[in-house]
Amino acid sequence: AENHENFLKCLSLQSDTISKVIYTQNNSSYSSVLKSSIQNLVFSTPTNQKPPFIITPFHVSEIQAAIKCSKKSGLQIRVRSGGHDLEGLSSISDVPFIIVDLINFSEISVNAEAKTAWVQSGATVGQLNYRIAEKSQNLLAFPVGTCPGVAVGGHFSGGGYGALLRKY
Questions:
Q1: What's residue 159's pLDDT?
Q2: 76-133: per-residue pLDDT in tens?
Q3: pLDDT in tens, 7-30
Q4: Which UniProt keywords apply (predicted)?
């Protein structure tokens, strides 16, 4: 409990906006935010340790504050990108932890002429495919997984596979 209080105090000193993006177990939305990307119900059982805090930042400064304060408070960080996590690596831990959910980092910018795209980790591969098709009239593609609900951050860090991956 002391670590949790220290964490909250540290956050309030680090960021003016953190109160708008933090969910505690006392918050009425906590359970729905926690379960929002848990696809395997094994990871949402009562026996699994739940994080005391879930942070859904809008600004990099809020991520920095969460990292700094979790380190000071001895809380591990689990990062999720807002899509789903079949292995539960972003939802469970054997030690006290927080979740930093990057679902609000979902901007996508596609430049079809340059054949480039900038995408934030909270965007899903379905959103990315849609934006690429929209900007290139279906002339360009990106080798993403077959499930459109996987977030780009999870896909880029090793999750998901799709038809174009063998060649690209």
A1: 67
A2: 999 988 767 777 778 888 899 999 999 999 999 999 999 999 999 999 989 999 999 9
A3: 999 998 988 888 889 999 999 999
A4: Cell wall, Disulfide bond, FAD, Flavoprotein, Glycoprotein, Nucleotide-binding, Oxidoreductase, Secreted, Signal
- Give the residue from 102, 105, 104, 80 showing the smallest Cα distance to 92: 80
Lookup: tokens for 143: 């080798």
CA distance 24 to 27: 5
Residue 22 has φ and ψ, to the nearest 5°, of: -110, 135
Q: Are strands 108-111 and 116-119 parallel, antiparallel or unpaired?
A: antiparallel
Q: Which residues contact 8 (CB under 8 A, 6 or more apart)?
A: 53
Radius of gyration of the CA atoms of the chain, in A:
17
- The tokens describing 22, both together, are 């933090």
Contact 154, 148 (CB under 8 A): no
Write the single-letter amino acid at 144. V
The domains found in the chain, sorted by start residue, are: 1-101 (3.30.43.10), 108-158 (no CATH)
Of the CA atoms within 13 Å of residue 18, those in its CB half-sphere come to: 23
Q: How many CB atoms lie within 10 A of CB 29?
A: 11
Tell me how far apart the alpha carbons of residues 165 and 142 are, in angstroms, rounded to a whole number: 9
pLDDT in tens, 118-164: 999 999 989 999 999 999 987 898 888 777 888 888 777 766 666 77
